[in-house]
Amino acid sequence: MILQPLAGMALELGDMLFYLLTFAILMILVGKFAWGPVTAMMEKRREQVTYDLDHAADLNKKATELVAAKTQALQNSKNEAVEIIANAKTNGENHKQKLLNDADKEAAEIREKANVAAVKAKEDALKEARAQVADLSVTIAEKLIQKELSEADQSELIDSFIKGLEKS
């Protein structure tokens, strides 16, 4: 009976040595054929994830810069639009003022021409009235005096008659 426990133990020790040797061989085989490729695959995957994260960060940074640039460009466009509108208003006001000044100048010229024309018409009317008055005066004087008057007499008579008209 003493042999039996030793025999069972020997069997267990042999089995354990067999399992240990099989485990060591299996670990060497896994290390050589599986662990290396799995580790390389995991390293490659880690590098890809790191690259993707860096690339995503770069793209995010570029997108932020692009948004900032577009926002600045939009603000510049708004400022330019406001400036263009202000310039257009200023130019419109200047053009309006110029048109008003030109119209006032033209109206003043028309008034001046009308005044000159009125003075000329008045002078022409007075000359014609003088001529008619002179003719009438001569005719009346001839009838009254029953004789012909000389040029000098006619001028003197006309001038005295006009002076009388101007006084009245």
From TrEMBL:
Compartments where located: Cell membrane; Endomembrane system
Membrane topology summary: Single-pass membrane protein
Keywords, in A-Z order: ATP synthesis, Cell membrane, CF(0), Hydrogen ion transport, Ion transport, Membrane, Transmembrane, Transmembrane helix, Transport
Domain of life per record: Bacteria
InterPro entries (alphabetical): ATP_synth_b/b'su_bac/chlpt, ATP_synth_F0_bsu_bac, ATP_synthase_B_chain
Transmembrane residue ranges: 16-35
Family: Belongs to the ATPase B chain family.
Role: Component of the F(0) channel, it forms part of the peripheral stalk, linking F(1) to F(0).
Name used for this protein in its record: ATP synthase subunit b
Name of the gene this protein is made from: atpF
